[in-house]
Here is the input.
Amino acid sequence: MTILEKMPAEASQTCSATVRFSDGVERAFPVRNGQTILAAAKENDVRLVHQCLTGSCGTCVTRVESGEVRMNTARGTSLLPSEAAEGFRLTCTSFCDSDAVMHFDYPSSLLDEPGPERCTAVVGEASWVASNVVRLCLRLPDDAGLEFRSGQYVRVRVPGTEEWRSYSMASTMGDLPELVLLLRVLDAGVMSDYLRSRVKVGDEMELEGPFGLFYLRDSKAQQIMIAGGTGLAPMLGMLEDIRLKSGRKPKVLLSFGCASEDNLFYQDELETRAAWLPGLKVKVAVANPGPGYTGLVGNPVEVIGAADLVDPPSAVAYLCGPPPMIESARRHLEALGLDPENIHAEHFSASAA
Here is the structure.
């Protein structure tokens, strides 16, 4: 990829973009020179999932199957280098340099589901579950209309500010009107400062969602979940969905890791879930343990070995954590035989603004 520059005169033609969804539905539309793929899709009434329009959230991601699609790298995006190398692009910051075909890893019917809703929730509980993690329980109004898939995220406005932050939901639709979030508390940051010093039961918090394409796929193959820190949140909802689903349950491997022992949380919760779901195997690792620690040492990626996998080519993986962990997990799982198409990721980075 190269930084976006003025296009040469010979590149002024209109290109054709074809988008293919996972359910086989296909749409084609023209893309003018200098027009982003997402803007062209909107202009031609082709609906694509998106949210931020700046490349920061990664919601509008697609994989290029053929043709030349160039992304504006002058603008920082959430796309990882390994993902770009595999042909992934963000449609809100990408342009067609030739006719192109792109695959979207969701069915076209997803666009018929209810869109994001905005409501005012009330803080019902805020409790520290680790030295740097707060469990925030929000009570939604009865008419909120929020419908989501486990794994998706919501945007939350920090009380008393105009700042919004995004968090994956740790609860499911069945838990509504209660919504549970797991929030990492930083040394500095508007949400972290609020949680550390001002949060109280009864606070009102504006909320919008759902967003994102990180959700449980329908598969009977082994499910591999790798979570770093509060990346555990979306996995909890997915596990509950698997537990409640009728019929044969897939085998599930959950690998959860934190930097230190005092960062660990929900260990009792994970033991309980393993008891409820016999096919669930849980690995918990600490990267920098203190004296006397007897558990697994390392990150949640490296503690997974070939013996943990049932049938790698058919397995489906879900990754949630900081970008370096996602990069490492992709490489490791592909080396173990997983199909890159079956690896789904939600990466996050801390915002201290």
